[in-house]
Amino acid sequence: MSPQTLYPEPPTEDKRWKIVNTTMRRNGNDSHALIETLHSVQETFGYLDEDGLRYVAKSLRTPLSKVYGVATFYHFFTLKPQGEHSCVVCTGTACHIKGAETILKALKDKYGISPGETTEDNKLSVLSARCIGSCGLSPAVVLDGNVMGNLSVSTLLARMDKEIG
Amino acid sequence: MSTEELISLKNKADLRRRPSRVCICTAASCQSIGADRVHKAIEAEIAKTGREPQVEVRAVGCMGLCSAGPLVRVESESSSVLYRNVTVEDAETVAASVGKAKVERLVCRTDVPFFARQHKVVLANCGVVHPERIEDYVAVGGYSALYRAITEMSPSEVLAEVTASGLRGRGGAGYPTGLKWQTVAKSQDATKYVVCNADEGDPGAFMDRSVLESDPHRVLEGMALAAFAVGAKVGYVYVRAEYPLAISRLRTAIRQAKAANLLGQNVAGSRFEFTVDIRLGAGAFVCGEETALLASIEGLRGQPRPRPPYPAEKGLFGRATLINNVETFANIAPIIEKGGAAFAAIGTERSKGTKVFALAGQIKNTGLIEVPMGINLREVVDDMGGGTPTGGKVKAVQTGGPSGGCIPYEHLDMPVDYDSLQKVGSIMGSGGMIVMDESSNMVEVARYFMEFSMSESCGKCVPCRVGTYQMHEILRRILAGQAAPSDLALLEELTRTVGEASLCGLGQSAPNPIKSTLRYYRAEYEAVLRGSRPSMPMTEEGVG
């Protein structure tokens, strides 16, 4: 069997599936590579959709039930598309005692969404993290990949106004 | 790799050496408040004034005092001065001060207890070496322990040094490292693995992140020494996906070590071979438990299994596996270099060496410290930490995360070691230390941790899956004013059941936050039961 025929047909014509294939190949196309592969899919496409899960299951010759089981077991994986911007609120111990709840409440008040939800216009997703390890600068959030520490609600909202509108 | 090649790497570092240096902390914490911009600004200033031949601008790892970040250290041949809260606007002043009088208004004193009481072994290179340059690490003596072990020592001699050091696992449980290594070394298994647990899931802990971001080669050297001692050829670092900077620096380090033939086949021209690969976690706290972690590396749901058999006998892919935490591995190279006895001279009778702690919460000096075992806890909190930022009273210190407990201020006069912490109802844990002031209600704190354990329970065993849910429900009822006084007795009974009957460490230790708060703050539970409503923790405007 030639390497090309090893994989089933990707769900879409999208060239980016090649990135996922590379990850699987690097790990010997073994079912052990499942988590690495799911990371690769999420990093490439932003989330894991059903077609993607089916494709990974077939490619790694793993039951779809197992793939779905792993994808839903780990908090890092998301099965829903994310908004244009993301705001991850750290709810680790240090952030908690320094007011992460207040930040979440302010976001809920302003944008009407709780962790795990996305605004209707698809602009913003709010997420919560167990701990991002920036405890020295609590409370902290990660806005579009950038960690912001020593936050007050007003600083955060001002920054979000500027970047998200 | 030969001695010559090590020397040539060292020479490469020497070539870059300048009479003066500006070192900028670029670990995640300082980065989040603009260290990268400061770095670029200082670099531009030095270039603008044409002083590149005299001054090196170096990105380094964590210097410890996160609350004063971004931190910048200016070194010249005769002096070294640390600057705090450096901004882009300060870049010109700082760059101009190199080799001249220091900038008084920015000076961060290093003769204060926060720095003076530290004893650095694990963090010795953090904030000194460039984390993405192997030659920097070699220049401070890195990989010489591995080189010496491979060329001059036998695996059993390496093992003997680690055993003599008395090092105990730094992941939390404190199992003697030497003993663990011996079990794996004795195994007749043809394939063995070395696994580094970098799944720092404890909320409030960031020691492993800092070590990986600041000195990744130290961890790789420790793993390679372990592989040499136990006879493994393949290693994995299981690191949290939430630490992108640590992952990228570790990737760079692995690539460099391979290129320098310090990893791979025929290391240092010997028959020893060892390759390391990274496996990403995906946000499951339970994967800090060793059998769950191994399941996760195998691509499965991170669910633990009963022990025995221990991973040392039957671990990854059913093979003998040595699994240690990041900080444990970071201790190995100094032990081999200076000998187990030198290491054992630090610390107390039953807890040897140093421990890295992450100080955070309502405390003035937040950041990373490394102290000798046995140091007085009050000294850490009051002297090194500087008390609360508001000057108010410290109420409690939480160690060990969701598996640990709260130690009241009155009980702080105790040595920090595995056994003493256990005696007061907490645990050493991986090293998170969260200080709480009077604004924290202990019932709320217990609820917070129980919510954590409840949602992180993997669901495999009933006591943990159902028990954490029920304990959380009782705490929620108490806080909502819907509980009966008899609920407290029910809660206590549940803590015993869950603690004794759960399958793995997560469940067994999940009741600890309730147990310790009930032990020391029962009055607070009773007050809440009588109807007093604690307020939610609030962010203060203008903190920092």
Care to describe what's here?
The complex is a heterodimer of chains A (165) and B (544). Chain A is an alpha+beta fold and 165 residues long. Chain A folds into two domains: 3-73, no CATH class; 85-164, Glutaredoxin. Helices cover 43% and strands 12% of the residues of chain A. Chain A contains seven helices and five strands. Chain A has helices at residues 17-26, 34-45, 50-59, 64-73, 93-97, 100-111, 153-164, and strands at residues 85-90, 117-118, 124-129, 141-143, 146-148. Chain A has a five-stranded mixed β-sheet with strand order 2-3-1-4-5, with helices on one face. In chain A, helix 1 runs antiparallel to helix 2, helix 2 (34-45) packs antiparallel against helix 3 (50-59) and helix 3 (50-59) crosses helix 4 (64-73). The N and C termini of chain A lie far apart (53 Å). In chain A, 43% of the residues are buried. With 544 residues, chain B is of the alpha/beta class. Chain B folds into four domains: 18-116, Glutaredoxin (3-Layer(aba) Sandwich); 141-344, Rossmann fold; 354-437, Ubiquitin-like (UB roll); 442-529, Up-down Bundle (de novo design (two linked rop proteins)), CATH 1.20.1440.230. Chain B is 42% helix and 14% strand. Chain B is built from 22 helices and 13 strands. Chain B has helices spanning 3-16, 28-31, 35-48, 91-97, 113-116, 134-139, 144-152, 155-165, 177-186, 207-214, 216-230, 244-259, 290-297, 326-338, 340-344, 377-384, 418-423, 442-456, 462-480, 486-501, 505-509, 512-529; strands at residues 20-25, 55-60, 72-75, 80-83, 192-198, 234-239, 275-280, 320-325, 354-361, 367-372, 394-399, 405-408, 432-437. In chain B, strands 10-9-13-11-12 form a five-stranded mixed β-sheet. Chain B is globular.
